């Protein structure tokens, strides 16, 4: 397994354990549409939505990032994913939740 995958999986599990888990699914959290072509992430609630259901301030993410987060969350490793998008999203989420910039995650993203 790639180190980025293992790190993302660990961080997502740790966040869930301490009550900051993301609501991870490949469909929109609000309307349930199965294929999100333009995913947006609401860091306040830790959810992914489609463009039609996004709240103000939601951050647009790449479809590949959503797929990486889903993969790491459910333990479904994919060799062709680099998981760096997932790590950047986790870093963003933690910065919103804690109002802190975590330098250790910055170092991981530079790999």
Structural class: mainly alpha
- Ranges where pLDDT stays below 50 over 5 or more residues in a row are none
Mean pLDDT: 89
Work out the helix count. 4
Rg, nearest Å: 13 Å
Strand order in the sheet with the most strands: 2-1-3
> How helix-rich are the residues, as a percent range?
40-55%
- Strand percent estimate: 5-15%
Shape: globular
**Sheet with the most strands?**
3 strands, antiparallel
- What is the helix/strand order? HEEEHHH
The tally of beta strands, per DSSP, is: 3
Q: Alpha-carbon distance between the termini?
A: 15 Å
Structural features, described:
The structure is a single chain. This protein is mainly alpha-helical and 111 residues long. Helix content is 44%, strand content 7%. The chain is built from four helices and three strands. A three-stranded antiparallel sheet has the order 2-1-3, with no helix packed on it. The protein is globular and about 35 Å long. It starts with a helix and ends with a helix. The mean pLDDT is 89.
